[in-house]
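Hi,

I'm pasting everything inline rather than attaching a file, because the server keeps stripping attachments. The sequence lines come first, and each chain or strand is labelled.
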Amino acid sequence: MKIKFEPDGKTIKIEEGKTILDAADKAGIDIKSDCGGKGTCGKCIIKIEEGMDSLSPLISEEKEDLCTEEIEEGYRYACAAKIKNTKTEIKASIPSKSRRDKQVILEEGLEVDVELNPTITKYQVKPDKPSLEDDLSDFERLKKIIKKEYNIETNHISINTLRKLPKKLRNDLGRFKTKFTITLNKDKIIKIEDGHQEEYYGVAFDIGTTTVVAYLIDMMTGDIIDTASEMNPQIKYGEDVMTRVTITFNEKNGMQKMQEAIIDGVNRLISKLCKDNNIKQEEILEITVVGNTGMHHIFAGIHSEFISKSPYVQGLRDSVNLTPNETGVNIYEDGNIHVMPTVSGWMGADTIGCLLTTTPHKQDPIQLMIDVGTNGEIVLGNKERLIGASCAAGPALEGASIKYGMRAAPGAIQYIEINKELEPKLDIIGNKPPKGICGSGIIDAVAELVSTGVINRDGTFNKNVDTDRLRPNESGMEYVLAYKSEYNSDHDVTITNQDIREVQLAKGAICAGAHVLMDELGIKKPDEIMLAGAFGNYIDKISALTIGLFPEVDIDDIKMAGNAAGVGARLALIDQEKRQEARELPNLIKYYRLATHKDFEMEFARGQYFPHMDMTKYPNYEKIQELRTCR
Amino acid sequence: MKIKFEPDGKTIKIEEGKTILDAADKAGIDIKSDCGGKGTCGKCIIKIEEGMDSLSPLISEEKEDLCTEEIEEGYRYACAAKIKNTKTEIKASIPSKSRRDKQVILEEGLEVDVELNPTITKYQVKPDKPSLEDDLSDFERLKKIIKKEYNIETNHISINTLRKLPKKLRNDLGRFKTKFTITLNKDKIIKIEDGHQEEYYGVAFDIGTTTVVAYLIDMMTGDIIDTASEMNPQIKYGEDVMTRVTITFNEKNGMQKMQEAIIDGVNRLISKLCKDNNIKQEEILEITVVGNTGMHHIFAGIHSEFISKSPYVQGLRDSVNLTPNETGVNIYEDGNIHVMPTVSGWMGADTIGCLLTTTPHKQDPIQLMIDVGTNGEIVLGNKERLIGASCAAGPALEGASIKYGMRAAPGAIQYIEINKELEPKLDIIGNKPPKGICGSGIIDAVAELVSTGVINRDGTFNKNVDTDRLRPNESGMEYVLAYKSEYNSDHDVTITNQDIREVQLAKGAICAGAHVLMDELGIKKPDEIMLAGAFGNYIDKISALTIGLFPEVDIDDIKMAGNAAGVGARLALIDQEKRQEARELPNLIKYYRLATHKDFEMEFARGQYFPHMDMTKYPNYEKIQELRTCR
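And the predicted assembly:
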C-alpha cells in the first residue's frame, strides 16, 4: 500500500493493517502521540486528502472528539486509521498542530505546480570509440554524441573535467570505455561518470536572519527527501541583520568572519543531510539560496555597507551563479551555487522566493502577500502591477521583546483559548510545563483578550473585568496565562501591558504597510491574503483578524503559504523556467519606502488599534468574532 | 620626422639629419654595423618601402656595393640614408641578414590586414548617482549606462569585481563617484577603474618545443610594443615533445612538473616585458597561446597520454578560455588566457596560428604552407579545400644532429657561398670565429655543394672534384667550411657525409609530405609556398629549391611568413573575428597521417635525392641554378 504525506511530499509503502501513525513513523515524520497510539489523547489528528475508503472506519473516540465538519473534511486520528488492502494511493496531510517540535519551522505550504526542468541534467551516452579513421578529439566526440542523441549543443567543459577527460574516458589499459554519464550545466559539461548514473541531488537554502533551513532534493524527481535546519550561526554577532551588516564593513575582517559563519552553517547542514540520507557530498550538484538582501550579500561576499546607508542600494539585484571554490560551499567541485535575485536593499531574495511560490504576477485576483519574519515584507498586486514594501515589524511577533516570549520550542505556549469565565486553555509544545509564549501564542492571547473584553481596542487593559488573572505588576498590569501552581512550573507566564504595546507596534506596522499599498493601488480590499514564513503558518487566522494584523478579507481568502521563501528556492532548483521568472520579478515590483511615505505615520497610528481605529475598514468584525466562539 | 620599421611595427619620431641607423637605434632595433656607421662594412642594408624622396642621395659606397636591381627595389645602407625635413612617413624594412643576433627568432613576416576588435574592451561611463528616487542597485546601474551609451548588454560580472563593486563606486565618505572605466570581456564586467583609463595590454605567446616567444601588444592600437623570448624551460626534461608528454603520465607529478616549467617561463617573459616597458602586470588583461598539441595540452594541464598513443587523439580540439587562477599565469586576476584550437594530436595550435596569418582558407590560389620546426607541418589547399600532414623532419634543419650544428647564435655560420674554385665565403653571426653551422647555413652549405658538384644528387660526395677541402674523416668524408687556421678558432667546421644524410632525411620527409598532399589534392604544383617558422624566414629560397626542400615553384611564389604562428596568436588577441576564424579552421582541414599513407614510403625515398629522384618534378632546375651564380 502506498501512502503519500503532505506537505512533506514523502511517499512510502506499508503493509496492510498498519496505521497512518505507523506509516508516518516509517516516513520519518514525527506526529504527536502522547497516549502511545491508544486513541485517547487526540493529538495525532491528520487529514485524509484522498483514499478515505482505504482506511478502517472511525473509532468511538474519533466520533466523540471530532466535530461533524471535521469528519466531513476527512480528519482522523492517525493512530486509529488502519490501512486496508487497496490499490488507491492514500494521501494524508499533517497539520502543524499534530507535528512534534522539530518540524516546527518546516510546515505546510501551498501545492505549487512545477515542472521538473533543472538547469543541471544528466545524459547517458555511448560514443563510438576513436580509431585512426575516426580520430576526433575527446571533448568534440562527447559534443557530437550529445548533439546526435539529445540534440543539445555543448559549448563548454569545466577545466577540472577537461583536464581529467582523456583518462576518464579510458580504462587502465588505455582502451576507450563504452558507456558514460555526462552532466551538463546548461551548455557546459561539468562531470563525466562511468556507466549509467542517474541519481543526483540539490539543496534549496532559505537563509533567514534567525534560522537557516535546507531542503534536500532528489533531482530525478524533484521531491524533498529530507529537511534540516539550524540557527543562523551569525546570530552570535547580533540578532538583527543591520548589526551584522555593520560588522562587515566596520570591523577588520568583518565580512570574512560573517561570511564564514554562514558558510560554515550551510556546510554543516549539507553534511548532516548527506550523512542522514547516505549521500556523498559530490552527488550534490547544485544549491539555490534565498535570504534577505543583507544575508544574500554576506553569503556571496558582496560589500554590504550601502544597503545600510541611504539611499540603501544593493550591490547586485540579479541572481548570480558562484562556484564552490568561490564560496567555500562543500558540494561537487564543479557544481553551482545559485543565489537568487533581490528587489532592493530592504526586499531580498526571500521575498522573490515567496512570490515564486504564491505567484501574484501570474494571476488576476489581487493578492496581498505578507512574509512575516523579523521584518515583514509585503507585496500587493496581480499580473497587471505589483507593489511592495517592507515594515520594521520588529521581533515581537516571533516572541522576542515579549516578557515571556520564546521561540517555538518545547515549553512554549503555541495556542490559547480563553473562555467566557476568562479562564485560558493552553496548547504547549512538547506537553511540558509552560516556560513562555511563542509567536502564534502571543497573537492568540491578545486576540482572546480583545475578544473577551479584557483588553480594550486601544490596547489598554479593561480593569472592570471579573477575573483574578488580571493583576497589577511592576510596570502596569498583566494577565496570567499560567500560574506556576497550575503546572508545577518555575514561574507564572503572563501577558503584560508592555507586551501588548509591542504587539501593537508590530501589527500596526504590517497593517499600515498593507493599507498604504492598498491606497497606492487604489483598492479597498485584496482578493486574497497569502501568509508566508514559518510563523505565518502557525498563526490562527481568526486571531490574526481579531487583532487586525492585516486588512479584513473573508476567512477563506486567507491562505497559508508555508515557508514560501524556501519553497521558492526549491522551485528555482528544479525548474529553470522558475529561475528565469525569479530574475524578471525584481523588474515587476515597484518598491515603496514606508519610512518616507506621506501616509505611513498616520496609518501606523491608526493601525495600532485592535483591529483598527477606523472600524469601517473591518465591516465584518462582529461576524468574525462569532466564529471564535464556535471553535 | 616619423619613421616606421617593419616587420617590427614600431614607429618613432626623429630629428632631421639623423640616419635610419640612428632611428633604428632609438627604436631599439639592433642593426649590424661593424664599421660603426662609416658606410664601409656594408652590413646595415635595409629596404626603404616608402619615402625614398625623404632621404639623402646614395653615397658612392652604396652605388658600388649594391646592384642595380637592389637600388631599384629601394635598398640602402641604414648609416648612409639621412632623413630630410618632410611630412611623408618613411617606412623601412629590416632584412634578417642585417639584424644583430638577439633578433634571430623574431623576424620578418607577412603584413596581415587585421581590424582592432579585441574580445576585452574598455568603456568610459558616467552613471547617474543613486538616490532615494533612483535606487537601482550598483551592478544594474552600470549595466544600464553601458546599454544606454554603448548599446551593449552586460549580463555578468566577475565575482572579484562584484564583491568590491559597491566600495569601488564610492569615495571614502560613501559618496558615489562620477567617472568610471569599465572593462568588459564580451558581456562580462571584469574590472572597474576610477576615472578614465584607456590603456591596457595583451601578450601573444608562441610556445615552441625549443623557444617560447612573447609579443607585448598595446591593446589600444594593436601594435607590438616589445617582444621577448626564452628557451622553453621544459627542455631540461627532453628535447622533443613526446619525451615530455611521456613524463606527464609516466612520472609521479609529471604533469605538474612539466606544466609548472612552462608556466614559470611564461611568467618570466610577462614579468620581463612589464619591467622593460614600465607596465604593471595587472594592466595585462589577456594572453593568447599557440603551440603544438603537446605543448598546448601541457600548458592547459590536460591529460596528454593519448596524444602519444594510437589513434593519437587530443583531449580538446576547440579553443579554451582559462583564468589566471586556473593556470597560474600572472596577469590581471580576472584576465583571460585564451588557448587556441588544435587540429589533431600531431597538428597543433601553432599550425592554426600560421593559417590565420597565411589565410589559404580565404583565397583562390592553392597555397602550400610549410611550418618548419622540429616537426614540419604542411597544409595545402585554398578556400575550397584544405588538407594537412605533419612530417617527422627531425631537428637536422634546426642544426641539431649535425656534427657542427648549433642554434642561430654568435659564432654560427648562417649563410654560405661556394665559388667556382670550391672556396667558401661565410656569413657568421656576431662576426666571430666560426663555432658551428645553424639551420640556414646547413641548407646553404648542402645547396652550394650540390650546385658546385661536390655532392652528387644521391647525397654522396663526388671524389673527383679538385679541392683540398674535401677530405676523409673517421666515418667517411667531409668538406671543410672553415679551417681553424683561417679564423684562429678552436676547431675546423665541416659538413660530413653523415650530416648530408641527416639533411636528406629531413628534407625528404617534408618534400614527400608535400608531394603526397599534392597527389591527394590532384595538383602538380601549388600556386604559392608559404614558409613559416623562425627558420623558414632565414633560409635562402634558391638554396632551398636547389636541395629540393619543397616542390618547385617560381622563386617569386615562395614567400616568407615569418613567425606566422606567433603572428596568428597576435591576430587572435586583437581581433575576435580572427579568434572565431581559428575555431572554424580545425573543421576545414582534413588531416592525413603520413606514417600509414600508402604512398609515403616511396615518396620519402624519392625525395631524398637533390632535388628529387624524378627530375620531371623540377623542370626549371637548371634555370634556378643560374640564379645562384648571379647572386
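The CA atoms of residues 274 and 280 of chain B lie 6 Å apart.

If the labels don't parse on your end, tell me and I'll reformat.
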